[in-house]
Amino acid sequence: MTAEPFSVEVTISAPVEEVWDALRDPGRIRRWHGWHFDGLDKEIEVIYHQDAVESAAEHRLEVQGGDRFELTGHGDRTRLRLTRAPRGGDPEWDAYYDDISEGWITFVHQLRFALERHPGADRRTVFLSGTGGAPLLEAAGLAAVAGPPAGSPYELAAPTGETLAGEVWFRSDRQLGLTVDGWGDGLLVAAQSPASPAGRGGAAMMVLTSYGLGDEEFGALESRWTAWWERHFPAEPAG
């Protein structure tokens, strides 16, 4: 029996036309998709416009690889459903299927966050990735807030010496999203894949999103989290 394709669904407090425009305008996509790096604009072009098939009237978009966005308006709210193309079409693509699915979880929750909390605002991001080490949520002091439902308030001491406070934004099997008041009402997304059968630690990732921080404040945020990360989740050696 063929497994049902992966899907993720969120409800966004914004009209359907607003959400649709955020999926089609490259400048607006840049405010929520992924994280900032030198190739972000090219990545946006490849994913959302190269070989994309859209129906603006139906608010339906199929992007490269056959992954499909479907938007349904309900007054001033929009249900967004992202359905992955099924496995089996391309062995090389299938090898990354789960990783891409996890990426979509991050991205749709970042989209909801940008539209609901910071419409029209630019962001600054820090991306951290590595392998091995202790379980990410435990190492980062986030395990205590992994259980409460979305919308629950939290406050905790981070391992970087700062206090984080806000609300639980989303939870999934492998990810946790928290709003962070001190980052200009920012967003922290933490994700970790399971360890391999060979005993290696799973891949770990964090995306830190901030708003309105000056260069000095943002630089300090980036420095303290990068220094902590490199002690716990070193980059995988090449080769």
Automatic annotation (TrEMBL):
It comes from the Bacteria. InterPro entries: START-like_dom_sf. CDD domains: SRPBCC_CalC_Aha1-like. This is Uncharacterized protein YndB with AHSA1/START domain.
